[in-house]
Design goal:
The complex is a heterodimer. Chain A is an alpha/beta fold. Chain A has 15 helices and 14 strands. In chain A, α9 links the parallel β7 and β8. Chain A is globular and about 60 Å long. The two termini of chain A are 36 Å apart. Chain B is mainly α. In chain B, 71% of the residues lie in helices and 0% in strands. In chain B, α2 packs parallel to α5. The chains are: A alpha/beta, B mainly alpha.
Chain lengths: 428, 329
């Protein structure tokens, strides 16, 4: 009975993956508009939805094929995220972007079994960059380890090329996500001779006095933060309280939205955050969004989030999905797509500056190329700085490449461990 | 003074201050439990709702604007004015009294005499309902509360301790203000309970609500009064925590910080909430400083608070100041 059930499940999964191409291009949006993290989930979901609406309204979809976006509320809850996946995968969903490291980890074996691609942009399992092991998982253009590496490269730049004898503290969300950069930073500390101290903060992170008193006592030269939600706002406020220099405090991109700095007011001025896309609304695509989406009354939100860091990230995620779909349509010479064809498009995706300019997004994100071996792009990350008076983020560096000399062996090691655990034979 | 001793004293003082903030949340639970036997799961959400309402009123935000715009096709978000903080606090209090009235009339009046677990379940429902209403009313974006509370390093303490001990202590101005407000709040609540007619009636209901009813005390009025007082305490807690982190939906999770305080201090004692808060605050901060961070990798505060409370529970189930539970067969 059990064997029969398993066989039926496998057959159903295979049928879903290899089933006939749908007449619409279906993009599920696993969003969170409610719960403790709603303030961050809403602008991302709005940006994601508005870009697809723009394509439908202005271009009639992608390659003439209309887009259908299915939004499913996860509340940033892993169980609900998995339910969303299960309830929408039968709709012909082309690619999942779970917007949660926890959900991503749960979905990795599922999407591999179902043959549906998943894109965890700037989150999830870092070693998914190894496409030979993670066939259906993509994490371009940058991952957590790229972030840690570029943070250190930036600190090298501002410290005259040497971090020898410096003290760097990592303040992190005490979860799988927050712990991601530890191994990388430990390797980088050996390479560059800095002393690394680790300061975990338990969820949700409303009380951090102990950690910031420790920072006040130990006086690290720099603080790197991997936080999320209320933890970010409290950390920036506590740093201001102990008068820690803001320009020596740098957060990962999930600690780099307007929400994270505005509550601290002027005290947050100078705080830095990593990013893999540009900020603000001074790009031609936003004129089209205003005209075809907002003015037409079809915006996902109130239209007041346009140009914010998280709105732009959602828009960027949708743009990358749309470009992968276009690539897939070209490869397979078809307008309607299956998840397997979408996967091929993602694996052949190449983002150039010329393409970005054509899309109305000049200098918006890094150039990168995906391949079977490399599902993570080139690991190009920039640094942004908060200007409290202007109430805006400004990019203060170019997109800098991560230290592949350190990262590549770590990714290879982690991917090999997963392959052994999951019984996968790596191959392209 | 040896450096390590100075650090320990600084951590101790900051633990006291953190404990006051935990106690502010715990006070709301105690008030309702003492008067009605209801463990109000919604107390954290009440703090969130109060803070959202205050921030919304100060900013001149139109309540339910998204709903209004969706139904009527309008585009209204703000009235175009800002309300002074003091007036906004008063208006928020009016809203919290209205909420207390509605909760009593629509929910708990119909549940009189039900098992405590039923009443507890009702407060769970109330918590989620209130969170949804708060979202619909004021939106999910993070709001700042600026009611003029000072924040950041207290320079006087820093300089004085530096001159006296060679190490300047960090004490947050906001924590000092919170301590003063908590002290005033406790004194005010005690005076109210001891010297006013309503306060005495409240105590009578807490002691024996059937006896109180038999001498003409209106249970409905007292419960509305108690929920209003809990709403006021929630507003104070919401202002303090909202000033620290901005007003956002995770504010409701501050209730998690109050639970060990209640377990330790007892569910029925106002001084218990304060002393429990102080013990939890100091205990978790000292443990993190002396043992957690150096030997256990840090982030021990959350579980240590509960462990400490559990230890107290084993020896004194009713909490330090709680009333001893005696059941005769």
């Amino acid at each position: 009975m059990n064997k029969k059930l398993k066989l039926s499940t496998l057959a159903l999964g295979a049928a879903l993956a290899a089933g006939p191409a749908m007449a619409e291009l279906v993009f599920p949006s696993l969003s969170y508009r409610t719960g403790p993290y709603a303030a961050n989930g809403i602008p991302f979901a709005d940006g994601y939805a508005d870009y697809f609406t723009l394509l439908n309204e202005r271009d009639g979809g992608i390659g003439g094929e209309p887009i259908r976006m299915i939004e499913c509320e996860t509340g940033y809850n892993t169980e609900k995220g998995v339910e969303c996946y299960e309830s929408t995968k039968g709709e012909g969903s082309l690619v999942y972007q779970p917007l949660s490291t926890g959900i991503t980890y749960q979905l990795i074996p599922k999407v591999e079994a179902d043959g549906i691609p998943m894109h965890s942009m700037g989150y999830g399992r870092t070693s998914a960059k190894d496409g030979a092991v993670f066939n259906n998982i993509f994490n371009y253009p940058a991952n957590y380890w790229d972030g840690a590496s570029v943070a250190i490269k930036h600190l090298l730049d501002v410290n005259g090329g040497s971090l020898e004898g410096k003290k760097i503290a990592l303040v992190y969300h005490n979860s799988a996500y927050g712990k991601e950069p530890i191994r990388t930073l430990e390797e980088l500390s050996k390479k560059h001779g800095f002393e690394l101290s680790l300061l975990p903060i338990d969820h949700p992170g409303q009380e951090q006095k102990s950690q910031w008193l420790q920072i006040r006592r130990e006086k690290p030269d720099n603080v790197i933060m991997y936080g999320w939600g209320v933890m970010n706002q409290v950390a920036v406020q506590e740093a201001a309280n102990i008068r820690y220099p803001m320009d020596q405090f740098i957060g990962i991109w999930w600690s780099g939205s307007e929400n994270d700095v505005r509550p601290a007011g002027d005290a947050a001025d100078g705080y830095k955050a990593l990013t893999f896309h540009n900020v603000g609304s001074d790009f031609p695509v936003f004129d089209d969004i205003q005209k075809f989406v907002v003015d037409a009354g079809k915006a996902a939100g109130a239209g007041d989030q346009i140009g914010t860091a998280l709105y732009n990230r959602g828009l960027y995620a949708a743009m990358l999905a749309a470009e992968a779909a276009k690539t897939a349509q070209g490869i397979h010479d078809t307008k309607a797509l299956t998840p397997a064809q979408m996967r091929d498009g993602m694996e052949a995706l190449e983002i150039t500056e010329a393409k970005m300019a054509d899309l109305g997004l000049p200098n918006f994100g890094p150039e990168f190329k995906v391949s079977c071996e490399n599902h993570g792009g080139n690991g190009l990350v920039a640094v942004a700085q908060w200007d409290a008076a202007a109430d805006s983020w400004n990019l203060i560096t170019d997109y800098v490449e991560a230290d592949e000399e350190v990262l590549a062996p770590l990714i290879e090691e982690d991917a090999a461990a997963y392959a052994a655990e999951a019984g996968i034979t790596p191959g392209c | 003074m040896p450096e390590q001793l100075a650090f320990t004293i600084e951590v101790f003082l900051n633990g006291l201050m953190a404990g006051v903030l935990y106690a502010l949340v715990a006070l709301g639970f105690v008030l309702i439990y003492k008067a009605s036997g209801i463990f109000n799961y919604a107390q954290g959400v009440m703090a969130l709702f109060a803070a959202l309402t205050l921030a919304g009123i100060v900013d001149g935000q139109v309540p339910f604007s998204h709903l209004i715009n969706a139904i009527f096709g309008t585009d209204v978000h703000h009235f175009g004015w800002n309300v002074p903080a003091f007036v906004a606090i008063l208006l928020t209090m009016v809203v919290m009294i209205g909420l207390a009235y509605a909760v009593q009339r629509l929910v708990f009046r119909h549940l009189v005499g039900q098992e405590p677990i039923i009443l507890f379940m009702a407060t769970i429902g109330l918590a989620y309902f209130l969170e949804g209403v708060g979202d619909l009313m004021w939106g999910s974006d993070i709001k700042s509360i600026d009611v003029g509370l000072p924040q950041g390093l207290n320079m006087w303490i820093d300089e004085t301790t530096f001159n006296a001990l060679g190490y300047g202590f960090f004490i947050d101005n906001l924590d000092i203000v919170a301590s003063i407000i908590a002290a005033l709040l406790v004194v005010g609540l005690v005076l109210f309970a001891q010297y006013t007619k309503q306060g005495r009636a409240m105590r009578a209901v807490a002691d024996d609500h059937q006896a109180a009813l038999s001498v003409g005390v209106s249970l409905n009025f007292i419960w509305i009064l108690v929920w209003s007082l809990a709403g006021f305490v929630a507003l104070v807690a919401g202002i303090m925590w909202g000033t620290k982190s901005g007003v956002q939906f995770s504010l409701s999770l501050i209730a998690l910080k109050a639970l060990p305080v209640l377990m330790l201090g007892g569910f029925t004692s106002i001084p218990g909430a304060i002393v429990g808060g102080l013990i939890i605050g100091v205990g978790e901060k000292l443990f993190e400083f002396l043992i957690g961070a150096p030997f256990l990798g840090g982030a021990t505060e959350n579980w240590f608070a509960y462990m400490l409370a559990l230890i107290f529970l084993v020896f004194r189930p009713q909490g330090l100041f709680g009333e001893k539970i005696i059941e005769r067969v």
